[in-house]
Amino acid sequence: MESYIYKENNVLTLIGAFLGLPLGSLLHKAIMVTVEMDYVMFGRNVRPISNVLSIVLTLLFSLIVDRAMAKKLHGVKMVESLKSVE
After folding, report:
1. How far apart are alpha carbons 50 and 48 in whole angstroms?
2. Nearest-angstrom CA–CA distance, 34 and 72
3. Are 68 and 5 in contact (CB under 8 A)?
4. Domain definitions of the chain by residue range
């Protein structure tokens, strides 16, 4: 049963990582336009390696969370956790 939780976590991580790239790009552009002044200019280019690193770090963090929660999830009895408390 724990594998279902891990699969769900991995799918949500991938969806978040790949949806975050275009949304992050839009946010970066909006922030750069907002904070720039006539006498202070910031770089507007984001290197592709930054996007790759962001995805890798997101997946790595997800893997760390999976491993950290494995022991706790293994101890949960799934059927009993669905019973209502009366």
Report:
1. 5
2. 45
3. no
4. 2-74
Residues constituting the chain: 86
Q: Provide CB contacts within 8 A for 21, sequence distance 6+.
A: 51, 54, 55
* pLDDT at position 75: 74
Please tell me the distance from the alpha carbon of residue 44 to that of residue 17, in angstroms, as a whole number.
Answer: 21
Whether 3 shows a pLDDT value over 60: the answer reads: yes
Question: What is the pTM (predicted TM-score) of this model?
Answer: 0.71
Which 3 state secondary structure label does DSSP give 15?
helix
Phi, psi of 38 (to 5 degrees): -60, -35
Which of 41-50, 52-61, 74-83 has the weakest average pLDDT?
74-83
